Amino acid sequence: MQDQLSALLAKAAAEFPAIATRPDFEAAKARFVGPNGELTALMKQMGSVPKEQKPVVGKLVNEAKAALQAHLDAALARIESAELSAKLGPPVDPTLPSPDRALGTHHPLTLVREEMTRILRKVGFTVVEGPEVETEYYCFDALNTPADHPARDAQDTFYLPESARFGNVSKKNPSEKYLLRTHTSSVQIRTMLKGEPPIRIVSPGRVYRRDTTDATHSANFHQLECLYVDKNVTVRDLKALLDYIFASLLGKDTKTRFRPHYFGYTEPSFEVDLSATHLPKVNKPWIEIGGCGMVDPIVFKDVGYDPEVWSGYAFGMGLERLAMLLYGIDDIRYFYQNDARFLRQFA
Amino acid sequence: MKVSLSWLQSYVDLTGVSANDISRAITFLGFEVEQVIRTGAPKFNNVVVGHILTRDKHPNADKLSVCTADVGSANGGVRTIVCGAPNCDVGNRVPVALPGAILPGDFVIKEAKIRGQASSGMLCSAKELTIAEDSQGLLLLTDTPEVGTPINDVLPAGDTVFDIEITPNRPDALSHLGVARELAAWFKKDLTYPTVSFTPAAISANPRADLLKSVRVEASTDCPLYTATVVTGVKVGPSPDWMQARLTAVGLRPINNVVDIGNYVMLEYGQPVHTFDAKKLAGAEIIVRHAVEGEKITTLDKKERVLSANMLVIADAQNPVVIAGIMGAENSGVSADTTDLVLEVAYFKRQSIRSTVKRLGLSSDSSYRYERGTDVHSLDEAAHRFIDLILAHAGGTVAGPIHRVGADIPWQREITVTPAYINERLGFEIPAADQRAALESLELAVVREKNSASGAPEWTFSVPSWRDDLDRPIDLVEEVVRLYGAEKIPSSVVSAPGLVGNDDPIVLFNRAVTSALVGQGFNECVNYTLRPAKELAAWATPAAIADLALSNPFVEDQSHLRNNLVSGLLESLKLNQSRGVAASHFFETGRVFIERNGSLSECVAAAFIIAEDTGERSWRTREAADFYTAKRHTATIASFAGIELERQPTSLVAAPALGWQEGHAATAGNIQHGWTSTFGLVSLAHLKALGITGKVYAGLFAIVSEKVTAYADRRSYKPFGLQPAALRDLALIVPEATSSSEVQKALAKVARAAVGNTFALEAVNVFDVYQGAGWLTNYNKSLAFSLVFRAPDRTLTDDEVNAVFTKIQDELIKTTSYQIRK
Fold first, then answer.
1. What is the mean pLDDT of chain B?
2. What is the pLDDT at residue A52?
């Protein structure tokens, strides 16, 4: 019996490694350990083993059983692994490009706008929106632009026909004309009329000028405008804001400087220059970046704020111009062509 | 406006101040310097007059000569200099740059050896000294100037011209005197006005009624003051060299003494003047009146102008001879044989001039100043200066009396301000004495001064008549900071008291849409708002397009407001396809204008397109986008406006489908209720017309701007069941035209009723649609639904779910025409 067991194990050791398929495995399993298998047959002989040898032979049988099971397990594991490999196919080529679409891209104007509003949000400005179709009152009158000012010319400003009706752009006076806003300053007026001071807003948006389109001009472009109204707002506060904005945007060494200028709705008024030596494609020490000033008392009076009590500042700039400076883009028309090779450069 | 430095020097002494410093001063006074132009020779050191003594051929170079030149004992006497110019002949006097001289372009002259020959300086051409664009050989100095003389003493004096932008609030600075006044204040120097010697009292009674009988102002509102002076016996000829040089420097062409003097006075005082040939005035009359409607005048530029009734003209007894303040008639001006002049110096209202300029599209240096406002109170001084210069440089005598029509216009303006107020507005300290000095340097004068108990002063300033822009204390803040130097405004930190408020919902909507679509692989585009009518024709009815038109478009392809964003995106796609750029997914957010309740509404919108033709091949193909892809993205966009698009009634786009493909595009929402959306396949015919290859799916969502409420109140938590769900599938056979949502709703209604309150019907989802051709005679669509049941408190048993499921089926058979597919 002992010899028979040894022979069985030797046979198993020889046969099992060659088993590669499930049917072969099942057949082998039946042949060795099935109800009609060889081990089963041997175990049936246990009855004829002398009583005193039973413990020894029993132990041998159990060992043989375990050894066979180990062969079975190993064969099954091998088969399962081979089946899985067949299912998975050959290994991937990890260097092939993914056929899935890459992440999309933000337009550079969006990136610049979002960066500016993020910077301004940190010092308490909230972002507001206003209509792009405006009326003469909000775009000009309320901003102290006289009736015969050149900016109001049909030569420079797009107007809508007198018959035009806009359901959701309110007119101050029934006789005024609709136009496409020439600056985002109109949002200042709407915000001040709707709310009450203190006010701290930034309004980015699209504006329109009746201009020839070329490398630096576009019939529509984008501006970003800040307005702060509170008690005791000073010129120095305005300078602090500009220094903060551009240090945040371009690094701590960035400097700004003010040059006196004229805007109808601020007094005093300044143009803002930026130290530009570290900007791409700029070869001037200072570059003009926007306009600003202290809100003119006339503007406050017009929206019903007491200029004796309230003071404030406003700052505005062009977003295309800023984006062109930041990225070194040399033609404004690229922003509006949407060539994907352009769009993908900024993420 | 161009200003000449040498001209400015007549009124303010800027000796020793560099052109750079002056340019900077002008800039920080508030006038942008667009260009600094140098004329004539710059200032040279170590460039002197030399006399060529000998000339020999260079031993080692064919084209060079070796010369000796006497440059004066103070400069080392006779020097040997190698020269390449053909005209370095013995006896010529030429400019010699000595070692140590720096010529323009940072060209340093040194002792040198040229082809083995020592050279101690350079003989110069006009080009090398930058006094000519080009030159043939050395600059030969005529009139034998003394050897050794610094070259600037010999060359005509150069000038520096500043081209500056005068802001519209400062018409006073449209003159050399005005700019000089600013510079005098900046550099703390005195301003010297021109000496005016003429006085009306000095006119001998010598009336020449034959030349000018009367001056009549019929339009005194537009012309409050008009003066005319007759000067007889003038001789027309060239104006003096210095005057020609100044006019040339600032870009005017000298004509003759009379015309030049008129221009000179205008550029000196900012007061336009006009000169008539007295003999050409019909009837010896001047009438200032409004034009007769349709009246014609041929102006100096030889163009016939048709005038209208509100335009101001200066007329003689017969015809208008000047469009007042703008331009004279072709044949009324001064000519070579003119001997008698009428000098006009007048004040015209800016609004009147401006409206005429605008209507005629005609402007001039004169109208430019009138439009911005001239100072009526300086008018007489300018007029007298004009007469002085005519008498001095054209001769003649004044034939009195001076015609002066119009009442005196009083001027008195005072502003009361305290230094404390100015410092409060500035947020930093400028000493009171400095503030006062700054204002006084601009010729504001303290007329009253009060001191408070604490000794703080309060000043009342009188404002000079040319500074009509100064009216309030805040205006003086600007003057003080201007002269203090805006670049010296100190920096500080932003103080930001917290204000409650969130970004506008529109901003939040755009931000959310943008990041979602970018996350889905779309490239964000920005297109022009203004579109050509022919592009919109595919996306709006002719009536709607008419309403979108601008009244004054600039170019034909930007004539209308956009009513959608898809058409712009298709243009972007087309551009990329035509450039062979691989790209298929584009989106844009922005405003569109849509008809709503009989008027246009400005809407916040977002749109995307997905092109089938990606422009590139891939080694593995992904499933192509279809209608339902477009629907999903549109629903995503709508969700950021708080709208659950999938729960909204959705129907195929009704005819005319415009840019959309009939049967393959749908709409949800209605702009009359505040929002609208369209999504699906773009019309294949339209794509073909555009030249776009492959199908394009698109979606557009638009919402009336005030209806955007992206951030609704914070939601509260709803408990959800933890017990397992029970699922049952049910397939229904329905008529082909029946929509899935209709069946789904009917089934859900029946199922909910069947469930009652015993447990919950959680979802009814369609999971299979079968539409085989000829599959059943009358019913040829099968919709399979999965029903999800769940009880909050227990695991549902098969029996109770089966009971409900049977009930649902029975009820469906009883109440609907649907068949149950076994």
1. 92
2. 85
Give A34 or B230, the one with higher predicted confidence. Answer: B230
Query: From the list A199, A219, A259, which residue is nearest B30 (CB)?
Result: A259
Contact at CB, B425 and A235, closer than 8 angstroms: yes
CA distance B681 to chain A (A): 21
β-pairing, B214-217 vs B285-290, is parallel
Domains of chain B: 2-40+159-187 (3.30.56.10), 47-153 (2.40.50.140), 200-405 (3.50.40.10), 414-484 (3.30.56.10), 505-707 (3.30.930.10), 726-821 (3.30.70.380)
Mean pLDDT of A145-161: 85
| Predicted pLDDT of residue A58 | 82
- For B59-67, the CB contacts below 8 A with 24+ separation are B59/B116, B59/B117, B60/B115, B60/B116, B60/B117, B61/B114, B61/B115, B64/B114, B64/B115, B64/B117, B66/B117, B67/B123
* pLDDT for B343: 95
- Cβ–Cβ of B586/A338 closer than 8 Å? yes
> What pLDDT score does B142 carry?
82
pLDDT band of residue B364 (cuts 50, 70, 90) is: very high
pLDDT for residue B201: 78
Chain A contact probe: residue of B478, B480, B522, B581 with most A CBs at under 10 A: B478
The shortest C-alpha distance from B143 to chain A (Å) reads: 44
Q: State the greatest distance between any 2 C-alpha atoms of chain B, in Å, as a whole number.
A: 130
* Cβ–Cβ pairs < 8 A, chains A and B: 254
CA B233 vs. chain centroid, Å, equals 50
Closest to B77 measured CA to CA, from B85, B89, B68, B86: B68
Tell me if B764 sits within 8 A of B748, measured CB to CB. Answer: yes
Query: What is the Cα–Cα distance from B490 to B486, expressed in whole angstroms?
Result: 9
User: What pLDDT was estimated at residue B681?
Assistant: 97
pLDDT given for residue B779 in this prediction: 55
Measured from the Cβ of residue B809, the count of other Cβ atoms closer than 10 Å reads 16
Residues paired with residue A221 on neighbouring β-strands, in sequence order: A207
Q: What pLDDT was estimated at residue B66?
A: 92
Q: Which residues does chain B have within 8 Å of residue A123's beta carbon, measured at their own beta carbons? A: 494, 496
Q: Do B551 and A159 touch (CB under 8 A)?
A: yes
B634-653: per-residue pLDDT in tens? 999 999 999 999 989 999 99
A20-29, A308-317, B232-241: range with lowest mean pLDDT: A20-29
Q: Which residue of A has its CA nearest to B426?
A: A235
Cβ contact, residue pair A158, B428, below 8 Å: no
Identify residue B790 by its one-letter amino acid code. R
Which of A235, A265, A299, A308 to mutate: most B Cβ within 10 Å? A235
Task: State the best of A140, A157, A166, A168 to mutate against chain B, taking most chain B CBs within 10 Å.
Answer: A168
Identify the residue among B421, B550, B585, B636 best suited for mutation to test binding to A, counting A beta carbons within 10 A and taking the highest.
Answer: B550
With beta carbons less than 8 A apart as the criterion, state whether B559 and B537 touch: no
Q: In whole angstroms, what is the distance from residue B407 CA to residue B220 CA?
A: 9
How near does any CA of chain A get to the CA of B590, in Å? 9
* Cβ within 8 Å, pair B530-A219: yes
**Tens-place pLDDT, residues B279-326:** 999 999 999 999 999 999 999 999 999 999 999 999 999 999 999 999
Partner residue facing B622 (CB), from A100, A109, A243: A100
**Percentage with pLDDT > 90 across chain B:** 74
Find the closest chain B residue to A151 by CA distance. Answer: B168
Residue B776: predicted pLDDT: 57
- The per-residue DSSP string of A197-236 comes to SSEEEEEEEEEE-----SSS--SEEEEEEEEEEETT--HH
Q: Give the pLDDT of residue B132.
A: 73
